[in-house]
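hiii so um. not sure if this is the right channel but i have a protein structure encoded as tokens and i wanna go backwards to a sequence. like what aa goes where. can anyone help
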């Protein structure tokens, strides 16, 4: 879901002993997103975030298993071809 683009590169860098630094990025919460989340039921919003957190943890466990070359890992390397 989010892990492949947001977290896996960081985990890979750490595994390769590459120094990873954090930087502050200017961010403003999108007004319409805030309105949509406030209109929805609070319980639904909290449930959504819990599900997202669980997905991240599960994906991370599978990715770490893949990095450790665990044969039981469900994560597989993709071959990417660039065609013009």
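sure thing!! here u go:
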């Amino acid at each position: 879901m989010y892990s492949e683009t947001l977290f896996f590169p960081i985990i890979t860098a750490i595994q390769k002993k590459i120094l990873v630094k954090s930087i502050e990025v200017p961010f403003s919460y999108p007004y319409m997103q805030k309105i949509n989340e406030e209109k929805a039921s609070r319980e639904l919003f909290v449930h959504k975030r819990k599900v997202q957190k669980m997905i991240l943890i599960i994906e991370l466990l599978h990715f770490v298993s893949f990095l450790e070359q665990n044969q039981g890992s469900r994560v597989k390397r993709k071959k990417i071809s660039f065609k013009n």
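oh and Helices lie at 3-6, 8-15, 31-39, 42-67.
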